[in-house]
Give the backbone structure.
Amino acid sequence: MSGFGNTYRKAINEYIFRGGTAPAPATAVFVSLHTGDPGADGQTANEVSGGSYARYTATCNTTFWAAATTADPSTIANNQAFTFTTASANWGTITHFGLWKTISGTTAADFIGSAALTASQVVNNGNTASFATGALVHSFDSV
C-alpha cells in the first residue's frame, strides 16, 4: 500500500463531493517505522516497538517538507533529514514508514497514510535510523 489510508481518503471524498467536513489541517505529522506494510488502515502490528523507539515529529511547514510535485501521482518528501532516537534494542529491517495524526494513535482514524522505503534499513541495538532529505516520499495515490 502506498498513499493515503482508507479513512483519510474517505474524509477527502466526503469533503469534496458531499460538502462534508474537511480533514483538519495538521500542525505536525508523526512518522512511524514498520518492518512490513502497515496497510490501508495503519496496522501497527509491524510498527517498531520498544528499544527506545518513538515516532518522529515532523512539523507541517516548509522546513520539514518539500513542495509537492504535480506528477502523476503527486508526491511530497521530507525537506530535511529525519533522525530517530538511537535504538537500545534490535528494531529489525525497516521497509515502510507511516504517517499519523497523533504521536501514539493506533486506529484507522489516526492514520494518514504510508509508503515503502526505496531502500530498506536494518536498525540494530546502538544504531540510529535516519533518512536523508528526499528519502521519505509519500504519494497522493489511491493504491
In short: Residues 3-139 form one domain. The first helix runs from residue 6 to 18. DSSP finds one helix and nine strands in the chain. The first strand starts at residue 3 and ends at 4.
